[in-house]
């Protein structure tokens, strides 16, 4: 019996483990990668490519190597606990070489369209149209694993910022930020207090004359380094916390304990960062240096922007900052699947997927989205578990 052919779209972290899981289940993976290399989000390039995620040069991962590695290929012992993006790429290359994954990847190949075959209700098969060097090709696949991620399309809600059209300074999305050198002596506002916004504000504050960090609702700020110098995600994933505390105690009490611990590091109210939400309600922001930059005055926390003027900005609390040179919008990303021929509807950046993977309305479960989750922790082990399950569903086991 011929092996089932599976199209894997994207050769980032999710795509690589999907290829590997296909091979484990004796399926035939064919991976299509629109760029010239593996790595997806984690491959730094000075000039962002359209349709591909983009990071800044200094990015360090927020999860430790012990918590982010794939289950059957540990990260080398001499690598640091929290790795620079170049080290993560080294790890992906070692993983791909060890399991001989690259021979299954078609680089510089764009997936143009994925559509049901006429007999889909019986076979679950798909037509996939790809384009390489301007030439299109159509192929039949028994299953589709979409591994395109959700940090590709910059979300820039300029309609929420009155007067932006009058502003004479420069503004852009954090996707286009690469390094701090060009901001020397500038007065800069960073909008957004997620991981990228805080990283950029902290880094630029070493070069700029002043950095303002604008946030609508604050955030819980936590460190990579926990008590006794341990990685915080290892410290917080012990059984006593994940089982005893969270399962046996009421959630509000667990929130209280963890928030109290975090406020001992630095008081969120005093620093103007106290959010309305509880710690386990949303993603915390991970940054070791923000409190130091605030207490030294290099970063000033501000509320949401109310209005732009030609060279100044007015905030919701009535305060005003003049002579603003640059505004960086760290306002997140939106995702879409334009190649999926309306098989999945994305509404307000939300999509309905069974177990966050399978579109529930399809007659056959032969289309899967890998890695479209935002966990408290690393995406890599979750993507591996998703890919294991999906390939076994495809196989019929």
TrEMBL record:
Query: What cofactor does its activity depend on?
Result: FAD
- Give the enzyme's EC designation: 1.-.-.-
Reaction(s) the record says it catalyses: hypotaurine + NADH + O2 + H(+) = taurine + NAD(+) + H2O; hypotaurine + NADPH + O2 + H(+) = taurine + NADP(+) + H2O; N,N-dimethylaniline + NADPH + O2 + H(+) = N,N-dimethylaniline N-oxide + NADP(+) + H2O; trimethylamine + NADPH + O2 = trimethylamine N-oxide + NADP(+) + H2O
Pfam families assigned: FMO-like
Give an example GO cellular component term for this record.
Answer: endoplasmic reticulum membrane
Q: In terms of one coarse class, where is the protein primarily found?
A: endoplasmic reticulum
An example molecular function term from Gene Ontology annotations: flavin adenine dinucleotide binding
Localization of this protein: Endoplasmic reticulum membrane
User: What does this protein's UniProt record list under function?
Assistant: Broad spectrum monooxygenase that catalyzes the oxygenation of a wide variety of nitrogen- and sulfur-containing compounds including xenobiotics. Catalyzes the S-oxygenation of hypotaurine to produce taurine, an organic osmolyte involved in cell volume regulation as well as a variety of cytoprotective and developmental processes.
Q: Which family does the record assign?
A: Belongs to the flavin monoamine oxidase family. FIG1 subfamily.
Name under which the protein is recorded: Flavin-containing monooxygenase
Instruction: Please give the organism.
Output: Eublepharis macularius (Leopard gecko)
Phylogenetic lineage = Eukaryota, Metazoa, Chordata, Craniata, Vertebrata
């Amino acid at each position: 019996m011929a092996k089932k052919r599976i199209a894997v779209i994207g050769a980032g972290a999710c795509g690589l483990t999907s290829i590997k899981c296909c091979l484990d289940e004796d399926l035939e993976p064919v991976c299509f990668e629109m760029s010239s290399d593996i790595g997806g989000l984690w491959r730094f390039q000075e000039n962002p490519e359209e349709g591909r995620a983009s990071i800044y040069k200094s990015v360090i991962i927020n999860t430790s190597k012990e918590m982010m590695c794939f289950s059957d290929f540990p990260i080398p012992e001499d690598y640091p606990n929290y790795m620079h993006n170049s080290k993560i790429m080294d790890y992906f290359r070692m993983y791909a070489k060890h399991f001989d994954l690259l021979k299954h990847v078609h680089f510089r190949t764009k997936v143009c369209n994925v559509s049901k075959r006429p007999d889909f209700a019986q076979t679950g098969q798909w037509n996939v149209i790809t384009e390489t060097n301007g030439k299109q090709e159509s192929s039949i696949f028994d299953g589709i694993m979409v591994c395109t991620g959700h940090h590709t399309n910059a979300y820039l809600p300029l309609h929420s910022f009155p007067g932006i059209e009058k502003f004479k300074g420069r503004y852009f999305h954090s996707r286009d930020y690469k390094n701090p050198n060009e901001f020397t002596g500038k007065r800069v506002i960073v909008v957004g207090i997620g991981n990228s916004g805080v990283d950029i504000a902290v880094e630029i504050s070493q070069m700029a004359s002043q950095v303002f960090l604008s946030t609508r609702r604050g955030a819980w700020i936590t460190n990579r380094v926990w008590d006794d110098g341990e990685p915080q995600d290892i410290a917080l994933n012990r059984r006593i916390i994940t089982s005893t505390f969270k399962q046996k105690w009421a959630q509000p009490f667990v929130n209280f304990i963890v928030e109290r611990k975090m406020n001992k590091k630095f008081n969120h109210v005093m620093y103007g960062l106290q959010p309305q939400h509880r710690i386990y309600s949303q993603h915390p922001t991970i940054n070791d240096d923000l409190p130091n930059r605030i207490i030294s005055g290099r970063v000033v926390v501000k509320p949401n922007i109310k209005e732009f003027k030609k060279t100044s900005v007015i905030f919701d609390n009535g305060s005003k900052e003049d002579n603003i040179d640059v505004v960086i919008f760290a306002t997140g990303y939106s995702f879409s699947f334009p190649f999926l021929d309306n098989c999945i509807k994305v509404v307000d950046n939300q999509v309905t997927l069974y177990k966050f993977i399978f579109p529930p309305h399809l007659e056959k479960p032969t289309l899967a989205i890998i890695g479209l989750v935002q966990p408290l922790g690393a995406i890599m082990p979750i993507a591996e578990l998703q890919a294991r399950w999906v390939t076994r569903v495809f196989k019929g086991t």
